[in-house]
Amino acid sequence: MSAPRTTLRRSLAAAAALPLLAVALTACGYGSEAKDDDAEKANVAADGKKLSADTVRIGYFPNLTHATALVGDQEGLFQKELGGTQLKTSTFNAGPSEIEALNADSIDIGFIGPSPSINGYTKSKGQNLRIIGGSASGGVKLVVNPKKIKTLDDLKGKKIATPQLGNTQDVAFLNWISEKGWKVDAQSGKGDVSVVRTDNKVTPDAYKSGSIDGAWVPEPTASKLVAEGAKELLNESTLWPEGKFVITNIIVSQKFLKEHPDVVEAVLRGSVNTNAWINANPDKAKASANTALKKLTGKELPAEIIDPAWKSIQITDDPLAATLDAEAEHAVKADLLEEPDLKGIYDLKPLNKVLKAAGKPEVADAGLGVK
User: Fold this and answer.
1) Could you tell me whether strands 194-197 and 231-235 are parallel, antiparallel, or unpaired per DSSP bridges?
2) Amino acid 369: pLDDT
3) What's residue 274's pLDDT?
4) pLDDT digit string (tens) for 195-214?
5) Which residues 6+ apart lie within 8 Å of 328 measured at CB?
6) Half-sphere exposure of 258 (CA within 13 A, CB side)
7) How far apart are CA 231 and CA 150, in angstroms?
8) What CA–CA distances, in Å, run from 78 to 40, 43, 66, 188, 363?
9) b vs e for 138-160, b when ≥16 Cβ sit within 10 Å of the residue's Cβ?
């Protein structure tokens, strides 16, 4: 993938110009949609001081690429920073649903992928959300049937699944196809490669039935396919500078950020502390994430799936803003997005305050931050 060019500044066309992304841009998860956790996580310390809000409502996916949220909630690391302010969590299956919840004031803060973040920001003409932090990089692979596909050139003429038309992985695969010099119609998926949009929950069955020859998918779907006999042919991280690209970031409603900056800062402290704990204790963190997944979905991931999946995901405080800019450009190139003005999508001042207090280096917004 090419390095991101200068900051996108062209004004976005009317919201009607984005009907596709309004429904299509999504990060893919597992479990129930908009499911409130049992007791609003009201395990508040007896001496916990309440912040400016009684409650903060956080949304995320029951998905390994949302490990910061899974582990931070499971281990009480968010609640520890919130003190007497209660944490209430909801889980989602798709980015558009989480954006709708943010717009409807059903959640205040969310963990979400880059494409729905871009879509939510542009559809509201920059009035809805801000990206305030990073969470995860990587965790996306091209896995294939080794009997049919042995090299990347063998993909031509084959049927390869992506999670959804216009979602983060779909855009990445279309961009990769374009850079190979092959042609595919983005809308229909027809061309030199057949791009088959398939929900991650049914992709393993589609692979077993032979209706697809491989998939460009996030974890743990990639490792589920490998467990069914597929072979990893490409890790998307190898296509990005320094092997990093945003797969999950943290967003907040602008209204909540303005009215409760102390609560936002507390959540970011919880995120930074959680990420530090995950990176210092990878095995314990993996077990914690699996425990959280079992609570949310009714089952945990077996070792043959979670072990390789966990290794491919990098947990980070850095939102990797330049890669979000590049992902937006890839969507534009694929004719899935009108070229947007992303100036102001980031507000990293609260995160950098937290990082500075923790003795950690500050992170950059690639020129896309608020002034």
Assistant:
1) unpaired
2) 96
3) 98
4) 999 998 899 999 999 999 99
5) 8, 114, 118, 337, 340, 342
6) 6
7) 9
8) 12, 11, 14, 43, 21
9) bbbbbbbbeeebeeeeebeebbb
248-266-252 Cα angle (round to 5)? 45
Q: How many CA atoms lie within 13 A of 355 on its CB side?
A: 18
Pairing of the two strands 55-60 and 109-112: parallel
Q: Where are the alpha helices (DSSP H) in the chain?
A: 19-24, 67-74, 77-82, 95-103, 114-123, 168-179, 203-209, 221-227, 254-259, 261-280, 282-297, 303-311, 321-333, 349-357
The CA-CA-CA angle for residues 129, 107, 109, to 5°, reads: 50
The pTM of this model reads 0.83
3-state secondary structure of 271: helix
Nearest to 8 by CA among 230, 251, 324: 324
- Helix 168-179 to helix 321-333 angle, to the nearest 10 degrees? 70
* Cα–Cα distance, 13 to 159 (Å, whole number): 34
Q: Which two tokens stand for residue 357?
A: 């207090």
Neighbour count for residue 2 (Cβ, 10 Å): 12
CB-count burial class (<10 Å; 0-12, 13-18, 19+) for 182: middle
Kindly report the average pLDDT of the chain as a whole number. 88
DSSP three-state, residue 230:
coil
Cα separation, 313 vs 256, in Å, equals: 29
